[in-house]
Amino acid sequence: MKRIDKKVADAYFKTRTTLIMSFLGIGVIVSFGVVLFAESLTEVTFIGIPIHYYMGAQGAIVTFIILLFLNAIISDRIDKKYGIDDSRNETIGKGKPMDH
């Protein structure tokens, strides 16, 4: 197993934590923020539907799906940036019995 420098590991952890917290913040705003300000958002429409109604019915789910794909893509890029290679981990782990 490859040893990673503590500074690199801390930077990786900080980057991943920031990414996750950002996506969680967007999720909270999309799901709860729109509901909290529904009355003031009645004037705003999206494809002819009031935005608070659209977000409650479909927009929040679509946003979560987009966030999942973005998280996967950005996480892969971060892993490559810090030298984390899943395919190498899989080849190392093959053929070895697991100790329980």
Automatic annotation (TrEMBL):
Membrane-crossing residue ranges in chain numbering: 20-39, 51-74
InterPro entries tied to this protein: Na_symporter_ssu (IPR019886)
Matching Pfam families: DUF4212 (PF13937)
Record's signal peptide: none
Transmembrane is among the record's keywords: yes
Key words of the record: Membrane, Transmembrane, Transmembrane helix
Residue ranges of domain Sodium symporter small subunit in the record: 10-85
Keyword Transmembrane: yes
Protein name: DUF4212 domain-containing protein
Native species: Paenisporosarcina antarctica
UniProt lineage: Bacteria, Bacillati, Bacillota, Bacilli, Bacillales
